[in-house]
Write a structure and sequence with these properties.
Strand content: 5-15%
CATH class: Alpha Beta
CATH superfamily: LmbE-like
Number of domains: 1
Number of helices: 10
CATH architecture: 3-Layer(aba) Sandwich
Shape: globular
Number of strands: 7
């Protein structure tokens, strides 16, 4: 079986699905992580918001190259293949005015000028997908604009989809998951193996520049991932 996991950013599948990815690969399935917003930093000035993220990540203008190398190591920990598309992260798009130049903007709606981008991304994905692949996309818990863009493009494929809960945003959106079951969505829960949990933690740890976004240090991250895995396991969702 081929599994294709659509990751809006370099770290999203590591954060949300790494234990399941490793377990599926260990069963002999072909698993690939396709990162959508993996393109280079465009030429021209960056927004102060983007510059502040580069400073927090301690990557400077080499942010994409740095994060790409992290993702390669992370996918190795998951025993997954990887594919990096050339769409830039939302924080770089829409210059010189910049469509998403604040924390509030990146958790808002897709900019109207990017509607065509959704359509072209869907067409590109459809042309690349292997026949019969199980395609997994984000539920968009938390509402990040790149997660929304990824889901919209996936839903334009006209194919059956699985959906994953966006971690760590899922922790603050339990009521949204409850609502899904009330309107007929079907959850399929899976326990993560002990080795799967270890590889989940390793896959997240590989994204060294991103740890400070969510946790003060690696031990706290590992504890948080272990708690989440033991509390919730892993669930894929299907639309009614």
């Amino acid at each position: 079986m081929d599994w294709i996991f659509l990751s809006p950013h370099y770290d999203d599948i590591a954060l949300s699905c790494a234990g399941f990815v490793w377990d599926q690969a260990s069963l002999g399935n072909q698993v690939s992580v396709w990162t959508i917003c993996a393109g280079e930093v465009p030429h021209g000035s960056l927004s102060p918001f983007a510059e502040s993220l580069h400073a927090r990540w301690d990557t400077g203008t080499q942010a994409v190259a740095h994060r790409r190398s992290e993702d390669i190591a992370s996918c190795a920990a998951m025993n997954a293949a990887y594919l990096h598309l050339d769409l830039p992260d939302c924080i770089y798009r829409g210059g010189p005015a910049h469509f998403y130049a604040s924390e509030e903007a990146i958790f808002g709606e897709v900019h109207p000028q990017e509607d065509q981008l959704v359509h072209s991304l869907a067409a590109r994905l459809k042309a690349m997908l292997p026949a019969g692949a199980q395609v997994v996309c984000p539920l968009t818990l938390g509402g990040h604009v790149d997660h929304r863009l990824t889901r919209r493009a996936a839903e334009e494929l006209g194919l059956p989809l699985w959906y994953y809960s966006d971690y760590p945003y899922a922790l603050k959106n339990a009521t949204e998951l409850e609502r899904l079951t009330q309107v007929g969505w079907q959850p399929t829960a899976t326990a993560i193996s002990a080795q799967g949990l270890t590889q989940w933690q390793a896959a997240v740890a590989a994204h060294t520049s991103q740890i400070s976004t969510f946790w003060p240090d690696l031990p706290t991250m590992r504890q948080a991932i272990a708690w989440y895995a033991h509390q919730f396991g892993f669930t894929l969702w299907k639309k009614p």
